[in-house]
Amino acid sequence: MDRPPIWLRPERAARGPRPAHSRDEIAAAAVRVADAEGLAAVSMRRVATELGTGTTSLYRYVDGKDELFDLMVDRAMGDGRPPVPTGNWRVDLAAVAHAQRAIMLRHPWLVRLPATRPVLGPNTLAWLEATYAAVDVPGLDADEVLAQAATLLTFVRGHALEELTEREAGSTMADWLTKQSQRYAEQVIGSGVYPHLSRMMIEAETPHAADRFDRLFARSLEHVLTGLAAGRG
Amino acid sequence: MDRPPIWLRPERAARGPRPAHSRDEIAAAAVRVADAEGLAAVSMRRVATELGTGTTSLYRYVDGKDELFDLMVDRAMGDGRPPVPTGNWRVDLAAVAHAQRAIMLRHPWLVRLPATRPVLGPNTLAWLEATYAAVDVPGLDADEVLAQAATLLTFVRGHALEELTEREAGSTMADWLTKQSQRYAEQVIGSGVYPHLSRMMIEAETPHAADRFDRLFARSLEHVLTGLAAGRG
DNA sequence: AGTTTACTGCGCACGCTGTTCGCAGTACGG
DNA sequence: CCGTACTGCGAACAGCGTGCGCAGTAAACT
Q1: Chain C: bases < 7 Å from a protein Cβ
Q2: What ranges does the record list as Basic and acidic residues composition bias (chains A, B) (predicted)?
Q3: What are B16-40's pLDDT values in tens digits?
Q4: Any B CB within 8 A of A40 CB
C-alpha cells in the first residue's frame, strides 16, 4: 500500500482514540536526542522511550524511520524564521544564507541526513519561499529564479557540511595534517606531487584563525552573490 | 589505542603472512555493492562475502565501517582523473566542476556518506590539488585560493546532492508536487502563503525539460565562476 | 636451524537496530 | 448502543557492527 507523504495525512484520525502525542512532540524529542548525542543515538526505541511510550507505537505516527527524519528536518528548519525582507535582494539573500547556516550549525546532524527525497514540510517550504522571494523581481524569468535560489541554497548546504566535517575532525584539515599526523603532511609536501596543496598548508593564514569558518563563509558567500548579480538586469 | 589514519598505515605488515586481499580490492568490492544496490546494502558481512572471506577478517584491513567508507570515497574519486590544465582558470575550474559532478552522479551514494571527517586518500588529494592549481596564480594570496576552491567544490557537492535527491524522488519537486500529490500542490498554491514558490511551480520551464539538471548546473556554475572572477585581479 | 614474534583469518557471541504481526482497549459515527 | 476504525504495545525476527580468543603462518633474530 502506497501511503501518501506525511504532510498530506491528517494528524488526527476521524475515528478512534485521541493519539497520545503530536507530530511536533515526536519531532522535538528526536531533535533533542540528535542535538545532544548525535544522529546515531536517534533510534525508534530511543525516541519512543523519550516520549514515555512503547517503541512500536511510533509507527502509528510515522511510516518508518525515514519519515521520522522528515519530521526532524522540518522541525529543525522551524528553529529559525526567514529574515524579514528589506527589498535589497543582496542583503536579503545574504540574510537567508547566514540564517540557514546558523540552523545547520545548531543542528549538525541536519546536513548529514541521508536526504533520499525532498522534505516538503511547512517550515522547509517557508525557507524556500523566502529564498525565492529574495531572488524574485518582476522581469526575471522563473528559470533564472530557480537557478539563483538553487545556487545559493546548494552553496550554503555544501559549505555547512564541509565546515562541520572539519570542525568535528577536531581542527582544520591543515592542522590535522600537520599536528595529528605530521609524518603524513611531510610525506604529502615532500612528495612534490601536490605543490599547490602544499603551498596552502604552509602559507594560508585562515586555517589558523579562530573565526576561520565565519570568514571563509562570508568571503565565499560574497563570491556567490557577485556571481548571481551578473545574472540579473 | 589511537590508531593512525589508514593512509599512514602500511598496507602490508613487516611480519606475518601475506594478507589475502589488498585495500583497493576491498574498496572495489564495497563500491561495486554500493553502485548496484545502494549504500544500505554495504555491510561488513556483505563486503566480506563479496570477497569470499570471513566477516571479521575485514577488521584486519580496516578499523571499522567508517574506514571502509574512507576507502570507498577515495576509490570513487579515482574513477575520474582531474582534467589537464589549459592555463585558463575559468575553463579549468569548469572542467573540474563538471568532472566532479560526473563522479558523484556515477556513484550516487558518495554525497550521502556520513562525512564525519575529511578523507585524505591519494585520489581525493589529487582532486584538491587540481582545484587549487586551477585557482592558483602568482599574486593571489593563499587565503583567497582556499576560499575560491572551497566555494567551487562546496557548490558542486551541494548541487549533486540536491540533484540526486530530486532525481531519485522520481522526478522534479514540482512534478512530485503536481503529479504524485496534486492535492498538496493545490493546497500549497491555494493557501496563498507561498506566492513565489507557487509562481515557480506554475511558470518555470526548466523542471519539465529532460536535461534540466545539466542546464541548471551549467547555469548555476556560471554564476559561481563569475563570482570568483571578481575575487581575482 | 630453531625459536620467537607479530601478524592473518575467522567462528562465536553480544547488544543493538528497524520493522511486522496480532491482540486488547477505546472513542466516535450512525 | 452497537459497529467500526482507530490506538497502544509486547513479542518476535532478521540483520547489523564489532570485541574476543584461538589456530595457523611467515619473517626476524639467535
Answers
A1: 5-12, 16-22, 25-29
A2: 1-14
A3: 899 999 999 999 999 999 999 999 9
A4: no
